[in-house]
Design brief:
Length: 151
């Protein structure tokens, strides 16, 4: 038993990645303790968040001239990183819009891929309206991802 303990202690004193002896009290990182590489969960399609603020400081010559692509995401993890770090719809100024479209499609009826599309709008109830609006937005976006898998 004492020999096994001595061998285990000596093994801990060697850094396997470098083969060098460690200083007294130095801690060896156990590879089993390292976090596993984060597995990405790809979405069926890439998606782009768009933002439009027609009431901004710039004068708008044509509809959609203030429309801006925010970010295109490809995985569940990228979606949540973006979603958790942008303003919720209830925090936007009146007239500003968020859009979520498949990558490569602009949120304009002039885009041939969107020509026969439509739009969903929702008026949240007056009581608890802001929280409900944010929930509507999240559920709509998540449902869109799910629906696109089956269509």
């Amino acid at each position: 038993m004492a020999d096994e303990l001595a061998a285990a202690t000596e093994a801990l004193r060697l850094d396997d990645s470098k083969g060098e002896e460690l200083e007294e009290g130095e801690i060896v990182e156990n590879p089993a303790d390292r976090p596993a590489e984060t597995k990405k969960h790809p979405l069926e399609h890439s998606w782009t968040f768009w933002f439009d603020n027609p009431n901004g400081k710039q004068k708008q010559a044509t509809w959609g001239s203030s429309l801006r692509s925010v970010y295109t995401f490809h995985t569940v993890e990228e979606f949540w990183c973006l979603y958790n770090n942008i303003l919720q719809p209830s925090k936007l100024i009146a007239g500003a819009d968020f859009h979520c479209f498949k990558s490569g499609i602009e949120p304009k009826w002039e885009d041939p891929k969107c020509a026969h599309g439509g739009k969903w709008t929702a008026q949240p109830p007056r009581s608890g309206g802001k929280a409900v609006l944010d929930t509507y937005w999240l559920h709509t976006v998540l449902s869109t991802f799910l629906i696109s898998v089956f269509c």
